[in-house]
């Protein structure tokens, strides 16, 4: 500064003006040095680092590059230059140094935030990230770092020790707990979710209270993000996963089978004993011939042993069309290529209702994909609806307009016959 001022005085410039001009020139010189240093850092050093990162076999440094960690580090250079040139301006030295330090702290916070995000990105490249996500913990660390950084910035500007401000945080703990309530609840919930392995990224969950029915795509400190099957996004508070109930379909996905649990409602009035003609007809059905032979032998032995009078079908044991149909369904499902034969499989009667006798199929498909599962289920029931009448059974349904019209038409025909 003195050297520049002496040069200006040699040109016989007023000392006061020379002092101001020397300050302006010095500021311009410092600015030029900062710009040049920043340019070299960004255009030379960063490019060299980028070239090295893109031409090695590691992936973690690519994450650092994508999060612009190195780019943000380049902002340190101008601040350091300004800090060391602060002594050039004695009157404003402390103010300039405080400003430079505050800027360095702020940029340090930005670098730490990017670095933490990069660590999370690196962690997500491993399979364990789906089981034990750390995004929530990263966010907690980020909050702590930012809080400490703000304290350091204020302490630097005020000229007090950071410990003075940290000691005052205890008195503000109630306020902080109120402000960071969701974050604290989310932290506790995140620990419980991770330790108990309750949810993972990729799990299909169902939570009707929040309208969620789809796959988890992200687990953070405060929220669990669910992409529903209609492609909408539902945000669920992390602590709600602990306090409320939800369904996790992971067990179904890992088991290799998806449950089919649906009923046919049989009109009870169509249930009857099997006649000789019906038994002959059933003997020609591939899935029933062996069953009919075995059952007829068992029934005949029982009736003969107990001297049953079969002149009345009520006496003794006999085949029924509903029983034969149930055996047919069981054999049909056991031979169906879309059913998992290693898991539970049964056909059972439920309690009769006003809609008839429910004949429930309980089985598991061998493919958990939604479209395939629905196709297998529809294929089974398409067939059963079509063959029920071959057993003398009627599927129950409430009367439709067509049924009522048929009844009216038949009534009219009966009236016309009566008149004739």
TrEMBL record:
PANTHER family: MINICONDUCTANCE MECHANOSENSITIVE CHANNEL YBDG. GO terms for molecular function: mechanosensitive monoatomic ion channel activity. GO terms for cellular component: plasma membrane. It comes from Neobacillus novalis. It is found in: Cell inner membrane. InterPro entries: LSM_dom_sf, MscS_beta-dom_sf, MscS_channel_2nd, YbdG. Keywords: Cell inner membrane, Cell membrane, Membrane, Stress response, Transmembrane, Transmembrane helix. This is Mechanosensing system component YbdG. GO terms for biological process: cellular response to osmotic stress. Its main location: membrane. The lineage of its organism: Bacteria, Bacillati, Bacillota, Bacilli, Bacillales. It is a multi-pass membrane protein. The chain crosses the membrane at residues 20-40, 73-93, 99-119, 140-157, 163-180. Residues 182-250 form the Mechanosensitive ion channel MscS domain.
């Amino acid at each position: 500064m003195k050297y520049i001022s002496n040069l200006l005085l040699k040109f016989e410039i007023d000392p006061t003006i020379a002092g101001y001009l020397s300050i302006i020139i010095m500021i311009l010189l410092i600015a030029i040095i900062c710009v040049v240093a920043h340019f070299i850092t960004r255009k030379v050093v960063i490019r060299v680092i980028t070239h090295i990162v893109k031409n090695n076999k590691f992936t973690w440094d690519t994450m650092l590059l994508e999060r612009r960690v190195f780019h943000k580090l380049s902002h340190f250079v101008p601040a350091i230059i300004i800090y060391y040139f602060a002594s050039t301006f004695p009157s404003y030295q402390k103010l300039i140094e405080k400003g430079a330090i505050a800027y360095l702290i702020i940029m340090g916070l930005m670098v730490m935030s990017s670095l933490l995000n990069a660590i999370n990105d690196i962690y997500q490249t491993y399979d364990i990230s789906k089981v034990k996500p750390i995004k929530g913990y990263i966010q907690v660390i980020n909050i702590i770092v930012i809080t400490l950084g703000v304290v350091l910035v204020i302490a630097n500007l005020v000229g007090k020790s950071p410990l003075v401000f940290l000691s005052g945080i205890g008195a503000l703990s109630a306020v902080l707990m109120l402000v960071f309530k969701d974050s604290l609840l989310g932290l506790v919930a995140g620990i419980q979710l991770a330790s108990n392995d309750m949810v993972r990224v990729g799990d299909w969950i169902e939570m009707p209270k929040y309208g969620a029915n789809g796959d988890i795509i992200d687990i953070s400190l405060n929220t669990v993000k669910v992409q529903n099957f209609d492609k909408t996004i539902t945000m669920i508070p992390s602590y709600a996963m602990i306090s409320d109930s939800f369904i996790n379909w992971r067990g179904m996905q890992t088991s290799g089978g998806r449950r089919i649990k649906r009923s046919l409602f049989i009109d009870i009035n169509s249930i009857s004993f099997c006649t000789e003609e019906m038994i002959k007809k059933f003997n020609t059905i591939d899935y029933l011939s062996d069953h009919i032979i075995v059952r007829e032998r068992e029934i005949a032995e029982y009736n003969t042993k107990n001297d049953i009078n079969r002149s009345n079908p009520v006496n003794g044991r006999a085949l029924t069309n509903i029983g034969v149909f149930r055996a047919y369904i069981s054999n049909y499902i056991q031979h169906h290529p879309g059913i998992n034969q290693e898991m539970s499989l049964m056909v059972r009667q439920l309690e009769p209702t006003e809609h008839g006798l429910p004949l429930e199929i309980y089985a598991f498909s061998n493919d958990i994909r939604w479209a395939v599962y629905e196709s297998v289920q529809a294929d089974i029931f398409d067939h059963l609806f079509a063959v029920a009448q071959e057993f003398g059974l009627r599927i129950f349904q409430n009367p439709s307009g067509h049924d009522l019209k048929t009844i009216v038409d038949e009534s009219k025909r009966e009236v016309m016959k009566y008149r004739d």
